[in-house]
Amino acid sequence: MKDQVMADFVLEYSRKPSQRQESSEKEWWTLRVDGASRSSGSGVGLLLQSPTGEHLEQGIQLGFPASNNEAEYEAILSGLALTLALSVSKLRVYSDSQLVVSHVQKEYEAKDERMARYLAKVRDTLQRFTKWTIEKIKRTENGRADALAGITAFLPIKETIFLPIHVQANSSVAETSTCNAIEPSQPDGQEWTNDIIQYLRTGTLLDDPKQAHKIRV
């Protein structure tokens, strides 16, 4: 599933030569990543933006047990794989994981053996870029990637799905304005609109001269 989504985006972007030319001039791409680990499963969220404004948002469910830090690393590796498939040379990576960013920036040492393997793979992959940066951001600044990671970690996804989201503008219990109905004053309780319709159809007026005059006027 992940490989197919990436392949589709690469194909679509490659069909836009003018945008590819512009991107080679501006060069820098932006990648926001997040990982999530829940009791129901683990997932990652990616938000990739090209220099010319194209966006790719993708959630990937991990089919194996993963801690939150492992999910954060998986998110970075998935994002790097996607950008390399697009022949990106300059990349800015943003993550809200203090631990992972500090590992990559060599501020913290990865003491856990599994974390050390993840870190080595990330550093090795980053060497394939001409220039790159990685920066820690607040979770509030990483909302879209965080939401994608949370959805994929929570939902019991067994195959590719499409998730349409509808925006409901008003509350289901919101008060609505009402108007009071005015009882008809015409003889025999007839609606005044009925009298007018009858006159237009048949030319027949009411027996009451005053009411007939109102309709004719």
TrEMBL record:
Pfam families: RVT_3. Signal peptide: none annotated. InterPro entries: RNaseH-like_sf, RNaseH_domain, RNaseH_sf. GO terms for molecular function: nucleic acid binding; RNA-DNA hybrid ribonuclease activity. It comes from the Eukaryota. CDD domains: RNase_HI_like. Gene3D superfamilies: Ribonuclease H-like superfamily/Ribonuclease H (3.30.420.10). Residues 25-154 form the RNase H type-1 domain. This is RNase H type-1 domain-containing protein. It comes from Vitis vinifera (Grape). The lineage of its organism: Eukaryota, Viridiplantae, Streptophyta, Embryophyta, Tracheophyta.
